[in-house]
Design brief:
By secondary structure, the protein is an alpha/beta fold. It contains ten helices and ten strands. The chain is globular, with a radius of gyration of 20 Å. The structure holds 5'-O-[(R)-(carboxyoxy)(hydroxy)phosphoryl]adenosine. 5'-O-[(R)-(carboxyoxy)(hydroxy)phosphoryl]adenosine binds next to helix 5 and helix 6.
Length: 339
Amino acid sequence: MRILALESSCDETAAAVVENGRQILSNVVATQIERHKIFGGVVPEIASRLHAESISTVTAEALREADMTLDMIDAIAVTYAPGLIGALLVGVNYAKGLALGSGKPLVPVHHLRAHIAANYITHRDLEPPFLCLVVSGGNTMLVQVKDYTEFQVLGRTRDDAAGEALDKAARAMGLPYPGGVHLDEASKGGDPHAFSFPHPNVEGSPLDFSFSGLKTAVLNRLHNAAQKGETIEKADLGASFQSAVTDALLRNTDLALEMYPETDKLVLAGGVSANSVLRERVALLAKRRGVRLYLPELRLCGDNAAMVGAQGFYEWRAGRRADMSLNAAATMPIEENGR
Ligand code: KG4
């Protein structure tokens, strides 16, 4: 079963061919980072235009790299939610055109389910059920993956996502976009105990996250230093902030493992799962709790279409199909199977 998958939810235009949900035959990603950098973040209108400019070239490249033509493909999968609406619409409309023209089935894929599915490519033996910490630019949640297409959210962020907090802190520290990656680099060798940060708690919902207080704390620290003319050691501040974000992520993960003692597999997913401190410390947590840990390989942490092809396979197997009325959605709960 070969799936041609498309992804355009944010600032990467991507296409891939994936076999049986586990094997990458091609994986092409055209990143727009350079075009958004000067604005310090993604400009949605520019993102949509750039997707429209490159989607057909990227798709052709993915087929060429897989040494295939469209008639050798069994289905077309596309990210339809959540994400930037104008950006998503480019992929959705292009996929609809391909499906209509070729008569192949069209399979809608939820972006966060796809991030989780990146792990099925990296770890051929990984099967649900497992507990997954999803940490991306726009979302942070703890999810029980009961089956390939069955999810239960145990905890989610009440405000900012972890990636967003890292990006904002990095930007305030004068680091380039995308901040999380540069903050990770700039913090290497820094003292994680140099600055103290609050330990956010969501009262009554111990598995929920909150990162806005942490973000405000780092911004205040920088403003105070600027007002007093103090210089702040970026490596120390970055390391302390990353450590505080990681603490919050892992404290809830630890609690979830305690609350659901039958869990024997822990999985990380999303762009922030590339973070070196998080990868290191989650390994210690998994060891302490005696659960097997699965991390996505670095090239599949950020947005790509291979992960869409992986999840697309399982959605297809579960009978999920879309027709020409498929629409994009800026928000969509991960549990939902509607469109
Ligand atoms: O999952 P993703 O590619 O996009 C969404 O689907 O949201 O996540 C992007 C996020 C950004 O916030 C980016 O700064 C962060 O992932 N990120 C990192 C690292 N690499 C990417 N954050 C911390 N450390 C990294 N090494």
